[in-house]
Write a structure and sequence with these properties.
The protein has 4 helices and 28 strands. With 404 residues, the protein is mainly β.
Length: 404
């Protein structure tokens, strides 16, 4: 990721007018200069906070650039406007907004995106990577999904509280100064991988340059101090048809007793017999048939079984929060072969059993996402496509849109 200077400017150590800064707090940068950056963040006074990657200016890596004088380049995520539309400051009908809170965008306009997420009322929340729109030079807007097309993928880690990145998932007091690095609130990184670690930490792998004296890319971050947003490139799951039901035998057999469980099967690590027709949680609404795709995907180990039970409890809460509407499960547990066949992510939570793609009858997926987002918080992942909602219990905050 690069920043390009598009007009002779001053990079500053504080986001202030240059006349308010000492000469030692600013440096002249010529039009056309480019820098590789680790991260960039909105800052006050129409500035962007830049963390330079492979070089420093006057011995410093963190500078503030004046937004009209710089462009962030080469984002892998693109947005194309496919119908004349309005970008908005809230995801509501445009007539509910003042003129200052909406801006006309013409069909065919293209933007690089820093990030995008599902939002209420069939909108995307988009952060533009290289443009600032409107009289207040804003880069975060809401776009009506049918009016735009998004392509490409990026996963971003955002630091939401001053924190330490560590080489081991332990208390910072147990680490030497060489094993930890301070990271300021508001810093953002592109990452290629993340997973839950011990001690309420998340193991993250940075995608660009590293941190610390050794420029390392793999670190442990304290889960409450970060949020992860974005969809990995290989994660495009598509619903697949239910497996065919067996033909009706001849002559017809008597109707089964609706109170008698059917579909006996065994689960690894358990001695008792389970039944596909039975609810996973006693008196619950979700069955083993839904979790295992009618018994065609039996869990490979006991941990997967516990993952299924864990997310089944969550889904009972989800159903209650959404007015006890019927819920259709699109996809639950996937063994690795099934996950690859439907286009799931390489490290999909579905393979751990604790993720579900689902549809709430009578509610659009963007509405479901917006109603669950704050409630679900940092307990796990939440995502949306135009046709289903995803939830998982990974144990840290992750949000994304599938882009379709």
């Amino acid at each position: 990721m690069k920043v390009k200077v598009v007009s002779d400017t001053l990079f500053k150590l504080r986001p202030k007018l240059s006349g308010q800064l000492a000469n030692s707090e600013k440096v002249f940068v010529k039009n056309g200069t480019e820098f590789e950056v680790i991260s960039y963040t909105e800052a006050e006074g129409d500035h962007t906070r830049l963390v330079l990657a492979n070089e420093t200016l006057n011995g410093q890596r963190i500078w503030y650039g004046y937004n009209p004088d710089i462009e962030i380049q080469a984002s892998p995520v693109k947005l194309v406007v496919v119908s004349d539309t309005l970008f908005k400051q809230r995801p509501v009908v445009s007539s509910q907004l003042s003129d200052a809170d909406k801006i006309f965008v013409k069909n065919g306009t293209q933007f690089d995106l820093q990030s995008y997420l599902p939002a209420a009322n069939n909108h995307f929340k988009v952060a533009l990577a290289n443009k600032f729109l409107g009289p207040l030079n804003r880069n975060t807007w809401y776009a009506y999904q049918p009016d735009v097309r998004v392509s490409g993928s990026i996963v971003t880690l955002k630091v939401i509280s001053d924190t330490l990145f560590k080489l081991r998932p332990v208390f910072s007091s147990q680490l030497t100064s060489a094993e930890k690095v301070f990271v300021k609130n508001g810093t953002e990184f592109e990452i290629v991988d993340s997973e839950k670690a011990t001690g309420n930490h998340v193991r993250v792998v940075l995608s660009n340059t590293g941190l610390g004296d050794r420029q390392l890319k793999t670190w442990y971050a304290y889960a409450p101090d970060i949020v992860i947003e974005g969809n990995p490139p290989d994660n495009t799951p598509q619903p697949v048809p239910e497996p065919p039901k067996p033909p009706i035998p001849e002559p017809p057999t008597p109707e089964p007793d609706p109170d008698k469980p059917t579909g006996p099967f065994r689960l690894p690590g358990f001695s008792s017999t389970f039944y596909l027709s039975e609810p996973i949680i006693p008196n619950g609404n979700f069955t083993w048939a839904e979790a295992t795709r009618n018994g065609s995907r039996i869990p490979v180990n006991r941990d997967v079984v516990y993952g299924i039970i864990r997310i089944a409890r969550v889904m009972e809460e989800v159903r209650s929060r959404l007015g006890n509407r019927p819920i259709r499960v699109n996809s639950w547990y996937r063994d690795p072969a099934s996950n690859a066949a439907v286009g799931g992510a390489r490290f999909s939570r579905h393979m751990s059993g604790d993720a579900i793609d689902f549809v709430v009858i009578g509610l659009g997926s963007s509405t479901v996402y917006s109603r669950l987002n704050r409630w679900w918080g940092s307990r796990g992942g939440l995502a949306s496509s135009s046709i289903f909602t995803h939830i998982d219990t990974r144990g840290y905050y992750a949000r994304w849109s599938y882009g379709y």
